[in-house]
Amino acid sequence: MNHFFQKQRYLIDFTLASLKRRPGKNLSLLLVYTMIVFLLASVMLFTHALRTEAGIILQDSPEIILQKMQAGRHALIPAAYLEKIGHIRGVVSKHGRLWGYFYDPAVKSNYTLMVPSERKLKNNEIVIGATIAKTRGLGTGDILAFRSADGRPFSFRVKDILSTESELVSADLILLNESTYRNFFNIQEGYYTDLALSVRNPNELRKIAEKLVVKLPDTRPILREEILRTYDAIFNWRQGIVFVLLSGAVLAFVIFAWDKASGLSAEERKEIGVLKAIGWETSDVLRMKFWEGSIISLSAFLLGYLAAYTHVFYASAALFEPILKGWAVLYPDFHPLPFVDGLQVATLFFFTVFPYTVATIIPIWRAAITDPDTVMR
Amino acid sequence: MRKSSIFFLYSGVLFLLLALSALDAGIRGDAQAHRLSLMSQQVSELELTDLSLFTEARYTRHLSQADLHSAFQDHPIAFEHFPSGSLVTPPQTQ
What's the rounded Cα separation, in Å, for the pair B19 and A302? Predict the structure, then answer.
C-alpha cells in the first residue's frame, strides 16, 4: 500500500514538473477552465439561493387572488363581486386589495402604490421602500410630490421608510391610505384592483378556485401554489439568457475538451516516446496523464467554485446586476442567503472534472500503446 | 519541499476552504434567519405576491399577477422588449 502511494507521489512530482515546463499554456488553460466553472457555479448558486428564498418568503402570500378579466386583460373588480361570491365553504375571509403602478418621470422609474390593510395612515402620508428613499434621497418627514395621471399635483409626506433588510420584497413600494389612493388614481368607491381570499384548508384551494370560476366566469383565480411555482421556475436553465450563458459556457468547454482529446502536440508525443524508451509502462504514462488532468480540472473546479461562492454571497452577485437590473432604475440591494444544494455542486463537479480528465487520457492512451520509436519520429 | 507536498498542501487548503464555505452557508443562514422572517412578515401583512426584483415593467414586477397575454409571455424564448423578460418564464398555471 505504502509502495502504491509512494509511486503516486513520484508520478505527481513528475507531472507537476512537466506542467511547469509549459507554464504559459497550462496557466492559460487553468484560467479559462476556472472561468467556465466560475460562470456556471455563479449562475447555479445565485438562482438556487433566490428560488429558495422566494419559496420561503412567498409562503405567506395570499392563498387566493381573484382578478377580473376584461378583453383578456386584468381590470378593476367591482366590490359587488364580494357579495356575488357569497358563502363558499372553507373561505375564512375575503376583501378587496388596492394597488397599482406609478411611473415617476423625475427618476424614470416605476413604483408600486399599495393600500395596506393593517397599517393605518393619514391622508397624504406615505411609507416608502428603502430603494425609493435611496434613489430619491428621501428621509422620514420629507415631501414627495407627484402629478396624477389627470394632471393634479399631489404632495405626500414620508411617514416611514421600510426596512432595508426587506428590499427584496419592498424596494419600490409606496404605501398610502385608501382615500388618498382612490383620489390619486381617480378610482371610484366600489372598485378594487383584485380580491384576496383566505382559506382554512389548503387542500381545498383548487376546489374553491373551481367554484369561484363557476360563480364568476369573468375572473381569474391565482393560487398561492401558482405564485410559488412561478418563482420556482425563475431563471429556469432551459430558457432565456440563462440558456444562452450556459450553452456558451458548455460549448466553450466542449471545444476545449475536444482540442485536448483530438490530438497531442509534437512535444507531448516526444515526451511520451522518451518515457516509454526509458522503461515507463503504458499504465504509468496513463497514470501520469490522469494526474495531469486531475490536477488541472480539480484546481479549476475548486478555484472556480470558491470564486463563485464569494461572488454570489459576499459580493451580492455584482456581475449579474446589470443583467438583472435591465432598464429598471430601482434595483433592490439584497444579499442572497447562502442556500447551497449539495447535489447541484456534485453535478457541477461531475460535469466539469470528469469529462476533462477522460478527454486527456484517451489521446495519451493512443500514443502510449504505439512504439516509442514511431512516437518520437 | 517536494512538488507533490506543495500540491497536497495547496489542495488541502482549497478543500478546507470548500468545507468552510459549507460551514459559512450554515452560519450565515442562521444569522440571517431574522431577515427572512421580517420579509415573510411583510409579505403576510401587506399581502404581497411578488419579489421586487424586476421593476422595469408591470408584468415583470408582478410576475405571478401578470396577464397571460403580456408581451414576453407569448413564448418562453420569444424576443422581449424588456431585458428581464428573457430571464423569467410566464406564470406557471399548470
Answer: 11
